[in-house]
DNA sequence: CTGAAAGCGCTTACAG
DNA sequence: CTGAAAGCGCTTACAG
């Protein structure tokens, strides 16, 4: 292994000077710099990042903290993760994956000094992991939001997304629009913030329509989707359109509706929000989706965290991006009865 | 920050002794050990992993090297990744994501000393990254295989998987079975090994049937799937069943077939291999799939690499697991004409 | 069984 | 503009 000492000897300088040119941290005479750069080239030297981390007490490693994602068929998740990994890489950081659930394990990890900062996914309205993070002093950024708005976050702009979805459906004449979200096993107050935000955005957006709200929460699976279809048929038969914010249930909702004799989109229009175009295309008929800006959000989350680490920014960054409408074949004119 | 020195002082021992009890690396008198453990508790001490890494020249970080996965709607990929992250975590290692394409960047990373070992995804038959890895001396394991069989790898057992698929279709009376794989932009000899292995397994498995082979390669998208449907109809109209090893094309193949008037499964049976049950269920009719053992393979890849790092194993581990058949509604009796 | 000390490969005040 | 030296927080022969 070639070290900084080897480079220094070959260039006839001290290791301090080598460090200065590598980091650009101090002015160095042009000839000296040239000698050092030549030596680095010739020896094919790379600085040891572990030693650098110990000496500078900065590891340039970011952790992505997430619950168990192993079993979930969630197309947007990998886009998030990869977006964050790319964003980090481009700024000279590495991203490590931390599949962590209990917070005992979490405090272990945080105190180890491995990471400079943390990205937190699947944030709950009230999230104990945020408290842990705050207590640990390790900088972090959220993908999603808690109830308090003073922490740095990036998130889907659900209000704008739902508003857009409702506007799109209204332009097709729909007035009775239902919402299908995701049921969670979390206790009250600890649900993903997403669900609460979606519901209140929905209530706001349909208020002008005068029709009563119709909200159904089911599991994020095909079975959940079928359940949603039958609950809609039984409890809200007047609804002519559905906004779905439950990626995993999308196929089941279409299949279930059809099984109950409701054609899509002739009898029931569907918009699937916060998902991917590719997933929508798999379904028959191809769903009109609102594509989650997952790759961008992942990147921006990494950026926000790194800005914070490097003291670039002043206020905690708050980034909101709405989903983009991608018309498919699942939205049609409201049926006249 | 509380250091080992703090613990040593409080327990009235040297830091060496503290190190011994933390690592279990040397026998320590019971009373001394108790004092040290108490001090650790009281101070809530956690060993600094960076310092440990520098001193021991082992970082306990593994890297997952993969091409750009950002855009791909591949349900099995995240299962792989998370499986590997879990496997690593359980053995006290961290997994970092390295989105790397050019190998200039790669040698930079390898020489930095950040990682103890590398997991390589999307392995090509002839893969320059493998040469780089070999040259760098950093231990690694493959997810997939190159042409040479002497490197440690875990992979789907495509031979067994295809054999199983053919047997399943034969039990329904099918004798003319086509194969749909994935087209790649890679130059000859640098394709993913998977494709070559699948094709030769297919040729072996259908040989006893006497029918001529029918192989179609398309892109892993809905459009690709539709293209496969029309090529099959035009070039291989006699085929009554398809084995699909192209997750992204599955929905398109079904839709395209139906659009051409071939019902699934009445006119055409389909098995989708190396995918997930959840993805199969999204499609109408629900596909009969052969589920990729992605979570296990991810875990086993991490295990194989760690075994290697810790000198546990002797021969390079070679792990092959076939996909498991999960019957859906897309396979039926061969039509009689 | 325990400790003093060297060393891992860097960074960073501090002098000059 | 450059260097000598301390220090980051551990591990690990080596003595005793």
Proportion of residues in β-strands of chain A: 15-25%
CATH class of the largest domain in chain A: Alpha Beta
The radius of gyration computed from the alpha-carbon positions of chain A, rounded to a whole number of angstroms, is 25 Å
Instruction: Label the structural class of chain A.
Output: alpha/beta
Oligomer: homodimer
* General shape of chain A: elongated
How many helices of chain A in DSSP terms?
13
Number of domains of chain A: 3
Low-confidence stretches of chain A: none
CATH superfamily of the largest domain in chain A: Response regulator
- For the largest beta sheet of chain A, what order do the strands appear in spatially? 2-1-3-4-5-11
Characteristic terms for this protein:
LacI family transcriptional regulator (chains A, B); alpha/beta; 3 domains; DNA-binding; six-stranded parallel β-sheet; homodimer; Rossmann fold; DNA-binding (chains A, B); 337 residues
